[in-house]
Every structure is written in structure tokens, then in C-alpha cells.
Amino acid sequence: MSEPLLELRDVYADADGVPILRGVSLSVNDGEVHALMGPNGAGKSTLASVIMGHPGYHVSAGRITLRGEDISSWTPDHRARAGIFLAFQYPEAISGVSVVQFLRQAIAARRALSELSVLEVRLELAEWMDRLGMEPAFAERHLNEGFSGGERKRNEVLQMALLRPDIALLDETDSGLDIDALRVVARGVRSVRDANPTMGALVVTHYVTLLNELHPDHVHILVNGRIVESGGEELATTIDREGYDSWREVHA
């Protein structure tokens, strides 16, 4: 049997000595979509950040592996080059750096290329912008500067398409979007998966609307830093109908 694409084994993590993750185990295989749901403060975004190697969190126990290799000591840029992509809940604006400039550098780092022509990047960028319904002028704008919430999230999807990650961590990509923008972003994620079918995904979300578009293979509920239940897509429907109270009571 082949190694999982991404695996967490009994991971504990804290921030400034405050425990957040309390023994999380999770396994994502090639091509699988996993949804992570839970109440505010459960540790969902922390889990995505820990996988990415955010220096603000300390992993005190457990292992994180990528295709069987322990990445627990790897820096965030090492993890990114190895194929882990994090779409931020609140993408930062970078003044003076255009979308195309940023992507050229990111693609070169991800694909281990010493040289990548502007023309090559522009051709691939133009193709994906067309597929995602984005105006050509978008490429010349400064990264996320003056972008609407929907534009920032679509730009994250564009980055994901061009970087071709092995696994994508989508941290509340649906946050702050109206229903039309959410559907545009979700369809963009589906297009990226169609082009890169072995890409795994861990989707952090509060809302079943996004999952109705993405159809996850597995849904996990995180409460108080622990995965307390896992199931199929129907589990998300139950959460949407009943909320988290029953899990909070049992795992308080």
C-alpha cells in the first residue's frame, strides 16, 4: 500500500504555551477532498497553519508527513516548494508587486526552475484567467491591493492553478463571500482539480454551501482541538441542520 499524500499522527500544537491542537490524526490520499468543520475557536485555521509550518505555532508532539517523509522540521518555504499550498482566509496585499511578477517568482520556486520567461508565465496565466472568468488587466494590478473579497479569493485559486500543488489547504475560502462569488470560487477550485486530479485538498469551512459545490470525500468535525467525528458528505448536512451543540456537550 502506498503512503498517504499527507498524514498527521497524534499532533499536539500550542501558541505561546496555550494548547490548541490536542492529538489530531488525519490522512489525505491523492485526489481526495477532506472538509474540516467546527465551531469558532476549535482550532481549524490553526491546523492548516501548523501543516504549512507557521512559526507562530509549536508542535509539541506527533508527526506530519508528506508522502511518508516527516516534514515537521521543514520551514514554510520548504513545504511550499514540496507541494503544499495554503489559501489564506485573509490574503495580504503587497504594494508594488504585480500579480504576474508574484506568480513568476512563485512558479519558479515551486517548479525548481532557475529561469522562467515572462512570456511563459503570461501565456499560462492568460489561459487560467480566461478559465476563471478574470479580466486580462487583473494580471497587472498590485497583489491584492484594492481587491474585493471575491477578487482576493479568486486570486488565491489562480495561484493554486499555476503552482500545481500536491495538496491544497483552503482556509475558509468562502469567508466574506456572497453566494454568487462563492460559487465562482468553488467552480474555480473544481477546474483546478480537473486539471490536477491527483491534488488532495483540506477545506476549512463553516458552511455547507461550499461543500455542496466541492462534494468532499470525507468530513471531519473539530471540537476543542480534537477531531471528534468523521463521515461522508452527509455529516456536513447534519451540521448545517443541527449545529455543533451535541458534539460540544460530549467533548467539552
Structural class by helix and strand composition: alpha/beta
Could you give the order of strands across the largest sheet? 6-7-8-3-9-10
Q: Compute the gyration radius: what is it? A: 18 Å
CATH arch. level architecture? 3-Layer(aba) Sandwich
Under the CATH scheme, which class?
Alpha Beta
Q: Strand-residue fraction?
A: 25-35%
- Largest sheet composition: 6 strands, mixed
What is the total number of structural domains? 1
Residue windows where pLDDT falls under 50 for at least 5 positions: none
What overall geometry do the principal axes of the alpha carbons give? globular
CATH superfamily: P-loop containing nucleotide triphosphate hydrolases
Which sequence of SSEs, written as H and E, runs from N to C? EEEHEEHEHHHEHEHEEHH
Count of helical segments?
A: 9
How many DSSP E strands? 10
Distance between the termini: 37 Å
How helix-rich are the residues, as a percent range? 25-40%
3D structure, described in words:
- By secondary structure, the protein is an alpha/beta fold.
- The protein has a single domain (6-250), classed as Rossmann fold (3-Layer(aba) Sandwich).
- Helix content is 38%, strand content 25%.
- It has helices at 44-52, 76-82, 99-110, 118-131, 149-163, 179-195, 208-214, 233-242, 245-250; strands at residues 6-15, 18-28, 33-37, 58-66, 69-70, 84-87, 167-171, 200-204, 218-223, 226-231.
- It has a 6-stranded mixed β-sheet with strand order 6-7-8-3-9-10, with helices on both faces.
- Strand 7, helix 6 (179-195) and strand 8 form a beta-alpha-beta unit.
- The protein is globular and about 55 Å long.
